[in-house]
Amino acid sequence: MMPIQSPNSKEIIKLLSKLKAETLEYPADMLMSRKAAFLKQAVTLKIQGKGQGGEGGQQGGSGGSGSALGGSTAAPSIALQALIGFGLVALMLLGAYLFREQDPGLLDENVVAVSESTEPTSLPGPNSITTSIIKTRPTKTTPTVETPEITTTVIESTPTAEELINGITVGDGAPGGPTANPGLHLGETPETPAAPGQGNPGNVNQPDKPDKPDKPNKPDKPGR
Amino acid sequence: MKDETAVITAAGSLNHDALTAIFDEYAPAIFKYLLRLDVNPQEADQTVGDVFARLLDKFSKGEGPRTNLRSYLFQTAYHLVVDHARERQRTAPLDVADTIKEDKQPVQALTEEKMLLENLAIAMQHELTEDQRNVLILRYQEDFSLKETAEIVGKNVNAVKALQNRAINNLREALRRENGGEP
After folding, report:
1. Does the structure's ipTM exceed the value 0.90?
2. Which of the four, A27, A103, A211, B77, has the lowest number of CB atoms within 10 Å?
3. How sure is the predictor about B117, in pLDDT bands with cuts at 50, 70 and 90?
4. Cα separation of A193 and A213, whole Å?
């Protein structure tokens, strides 16, 4: 095989130009589909451009960009709608304020009806006053507020000491139970006899101290 | 293309006939250019689509080229190829020879010139930098001027001249080595 002569620069340039012919052609099916896609995209863009331009022409008169003009006309319409909305709300509030006396529940929906009632307890006592507060859900109708009823039972005859002792010691063995209620007034404690060997031994031999007499009220100082 | 300025102006308003003329004129040339840059035919077809889609996008915004549409389209194609190559982080140089080898006969059956072309293609693949190869393709296979080539690759004219001279010298040296060191 004969050795190939090394080309000079001009020959290399010629060879480079000849390499052009070696390149593959664009396949016809690829070219046609690409062209169809290109022209379809062009039509789409043209339609979009016309749509924007048409809006701009109608809204803003002649010339200019359609999208920019469309944006400027849309803003006042939104503001107008918001203004109308606020006006309607203000009218409704005004009406509610004017007619508030006819329907007090209209403005103040958080009305809490408080009713106090007296309920009997299972523990009868000399003065049993029971008060219960029932909070009811607010309703649109006029709430009925019940006045509290206070039931007072006054035991006319005071129990004797024997009755008191029996009430505590003789019972069903459950001090404080329903049968052990001595019927004392509020704040009083029953006196129980100290059993021998029980209780505080230090207090057994000590006599009770006499009650101190009440101090007389001092007269008011003048000048105050 | 006859009266390129008028065609560009018409295409700027998305005129169907003008756009068709532009596509018919330049799509096959860009496809071939992409194959020379070692882009496979499927990717080259997609890139052609991207090039013309960008052109449409520019025209719809009232932008785009006013003159020298061919240079503009090749520049877009070149940038897309470079971007794509960066995305793939391809380390291998552009494989020019493979596209030529596809329809090749066995080496023994080639004539002397064919062997020279084969060696030249291999040397372009292995002996040149990417910039040198691009400049040679644009200058001697796509017939762009120095100025147009400089615009496409984004360099000044002197840099393109230097790249071109170095590339030719490298090819000459490679072919000399291939032929047994004969000057």
Report:
1. no
2. A211
3. confident
4. 27
Task: Please list the residues that pair with A116 across neighbouring strands.
Answer: A133
**B50–chain A Cβ distance below 8 A for any pair:** no
Q: What is the DSSP letter of A22?
A: G
Distance, CA of B18 to CA of B20 (rounded, Å): 5
What are the chain A neighbours of B110 within 8 Å (beta carbons)? Answer: none
User: In which band, very low, low, confident or very high, does the pLDDT at B38 lie, cut at 50, 70 and 90?
Assistant: confident
In this complex, the residue of A5, A19, A49 whose CB is nearest that of residue B120 is A19
Which chain A residue is nearest to residue B174, measuring alpha carbons?
A6
CA dihedral over B27, B28, B30, B35, signed as positive or negative: positive
Contact A194, A204 (CB under 8 A): yes
- The model's pTM is 0.51
Q: How far apart are CA A86 and CA A88, in angstroms?
A: 5
Mutate to test the interface with B, among A2, A11, A26 (most CBs of B within 10 A): A26
- B19, B24, B68, B8: which is closest to A46 by C-alpha? B19
